[in-house]
Structure prediction request, 190 residues.
Amino acid sequence: MRFTAMNRGQSGKMAMAAAALSAGLLALTGCGYVNAQQTSHQYAASDGTRAEVGPVQLRNMLIVSAGENQPGRVIGAVYNSSSKDVKVTLKGAEGAQTEVPVKQNSYTLLNESADEAILSTSGGKPGSLVDVQVTEDGTNVNKTVKIPVVDGTLKEYAAYLPGGTPSQTATPGETATPSDTASATPTESH
Prediction:
């Protein structure tokens, strides 16, 4: 087999092709250098919000309410990483307040709790964010957290509406009154 030397034109073309290939590879792999990796940022991958208040961690916090001036049930999880029992106070709009007891090194799931965390008013329309002041009683640490308000439009949240789920005739954002949901006496048809 016989090898021949490349002339200057051929070697120049090879050098340009190699440079273009390495520039293309650098451009493709350089995206990770310029753009931050999403997995390195902490965020709430859910409908609710998360926050830390002293030894207490709030996860997936939501307020389920039929309207701005209606009661709202707080759902989510409250974790206590301290070695003593704590009471977490949630203060919303217009003096609305609820307390959540959490055992030491444990958690309370508000969606499963028999003692529901109800605010007398949600303080915002479904779809909005409302300010809720969260206080942990042991250290008196408090923090204002923005918590989303949702209604019973999504079936996942309908069961958490204070006072029960709205009737099928109610439009999203309003609840049916007891007279709307009362069953009528059946009539005979001839």
Notes: Residues 167-190 have pLDDT under 50 and may be disordered. The longest strand covers residues 56-65.
